[in-house]
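Customer escalation, tier 2.

The customer says the design service returned an amino acid string that "doesn't look like it belongs to this structure." They asked us to rerun it and document both sides in this ticket. The original structure tokens are below, unchanged.
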């Protein structure tokens, strides 16, 4: 009985797939440098109703943005998916300038 209970707990702890990247993805030096680059160059542009520098440096409600941005940086999602995901989560219709700036920074970043 204990074996099955332990196996069940272990199996359940692995559930969740790619819904949210593990902390190690969005807290690595490469990703942190990419966030800083976005904040420095694109920080005045907004996703949703929040400037990027606020989402990166101040907001406590930024996990989705950081998670999606780390996935983009590490090549786990492509630009189209990133744009679709952010536009769906921040549906203001005014994200294009910020997204273009983020993509420009991605082009200038060293390979991850």
């Amino acid at each position: 009985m204990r074996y099955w209970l332990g196996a069940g707990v272990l199996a359940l702890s692995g559930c969740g797939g790619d819904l949210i990247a593990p902390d190690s993805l969005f807290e690595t030096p490469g990703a942190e440098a990419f966030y800083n680059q976005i904040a420095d160059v694109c920080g005045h542009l907004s996703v949703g109703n929040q400037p990027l520098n606020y989402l990166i440096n101040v907001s406590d409600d930024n996990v989705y943005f950081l998670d999606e941005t780390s996935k983009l940086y590490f090549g786990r999602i492509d630009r189209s998916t990133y744009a679709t995901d952010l536009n769906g989560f921040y549906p203001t219709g005014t994200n294009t300038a910020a997204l273009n700036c983020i993509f420009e920074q991605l082009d200038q970043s060293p390979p991850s």
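Tier 2 assessment: The sequence is consistent with the input. Strands lie at 46-47, 50-51. Residues 2-26 have pLDDT under 50 and may be disordered. Sent an explanation to the customer and offered a walkthrough call.
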